[in-house]
Amino acid sequence: MERDPKLLIAQDRAESLMDEGAYPEALSLYLWLVDNEPEDFRHRMRIAEILLRLGEKGKSLDVLTQVATQSVLCGRVMRTVSACKLGLGLFPEEHKTFELLLTRLHRRAVLLDRPPVSPPKDDGDATDAETGAGEAPVAGISSPPSPPSSSEGLSELINKAYEAANHYASVAEGVGDNGELELAAMPFFSDLAAGDFVAVVKGMNLLDIDRDTKIIKQGEDGNSFFLLVRGSVIVEKELEDGPPVELAKLGDGSLFGEMALLSRSPRIATVRSLTRCELFEVPRIVLDDLVEERPRVASSLVEFTKKRLLANLLTTSPLFSRFSREDRKSIIKLFDKVLVDEGEIVVEEGTEPGALYLVSSGEVAVTRAEEGKEKIRLATLGPGEVFGEISLLKNQPANASVTAETRSVLLRLDRERFFNMAMQYPPILEYLENLSEERLAATEEILSDDWVYGADDLIMV
Asked: Which residues have CB under 8 Å from 135's CB, separation 6+?
């Protein structure tokens, strides 16, 4: 069903009133929203916040506890996490209640072995195109009410809002203990033990992001990762000589930003909001503390990140551009993963041909030593770029050294598997031969007396 534009206007107005501290007026609008959109639990969470600010602590706790409980019953994983996180922040003395609900969500989701019942849609801030804003309103929705004009009216409003926020018959009818949404639908969390899951949730920050906002900027240091509660974002690789390359579009329950956090290297892509978004942020300091206490958290995040890194490489690296999706997956399986620390030498000038390398994350510097001179930097390579191909193709010692500029993840293909791959996938050999000729010519130019700076993206190794 199309969402009436009155609902969008009322929701935006209610948010503004809350920001202004006009709590009775905001409460009146959220009561109206609950009556017209009982399936959107966020309205109930806002009522809980307002009740607390109006001094109704007991009623606020009741409402928020019910939101979290009903979210579990309706299979709303992200809404459960969001409600429990809010409860832990507003009512720290009741932490056991919300921790128990999170544990219950985790336990039941992991044990469930049959397809989940689809929960009612929590539309949130959909775009105009998705909601049909500007079209004829849906019949049956009245205009929002006026705010109370007296303390007596406020007391009545509080009671009505409390009752409405705790009424779930029309939402949860028919959804019982076997109607859960599997936790596997939420990346990273599905690999955690119950206690680790609760610990991560307690350490997260809840953010509200406007549409068309850069949440992550390519090239910046990574100090946190994010979990998208509601909304949609686009992940883009920004290029120097062309428009951005779209890597993915992510929706509710998606995790992003973990790569730079783990490798401690600059962000390799930009993430921009396509709609208004509600998301969780896990700062590095929180993750470091968790990892120190619970090492399994790091293992789970590393395993998830490995899968994401490979997916990005398959999309962006020229090495795979001429192959089908199935062939790309087959080729990438031939490589071994190598983690190198900052300053570590990967290839040393003068050594015998060893392997082909593909940069998965981080950066490496390519340098060459000239007699009686300082080392000359030939290039800096980043994700998706290869090195080591010239030594293999020409069967000669490496003519340059490659050193990790940052902590980096590399994919390594040894000599034997390299030639087997080249025979099975001729386009790869063609690409590498062309690349090697370009790099040989560029290296010769760089080392010549009349070299002009600017060819640092073409190198020889």
From this structure: 2, 5
Where do the structural domains in the chain lie, given as residue ranges?
5-184, 203-311, 327-447
CA-based nearest residue to 80, from 41, 113, 107, 46: 41
Element counts in the chain: helices (H) and strands (E)? 17, 16
Mean pLDDT to the nearest integer, 131-159: 61
Contact assessment for residue 22 and residue 30, using Cβ atoms and an 8 Å cutoff: no
Give residues with Cβ within 8 angstroms of 423, minimum separation 6: none
User: What is the per-residue pLDDT for 188?
Assistant: 65
* Domain 327-447 in this protein, CATH class: mainly beta
Q: What is the rounded average pLDDT of the residues 256-275?
A: 80
Report the C-alpha gap between 400 and 388 in whole angstroms: 9
Fold of 203-311: Jelly Rolls (2.60.120)
Angle at 31 between CA 25 and CA 37, to 5 degrees: 130
Residue 225 bridge partners (DSSP): 282
Q: How many CB atoms lie within 10 A of CB 129?
A: 8
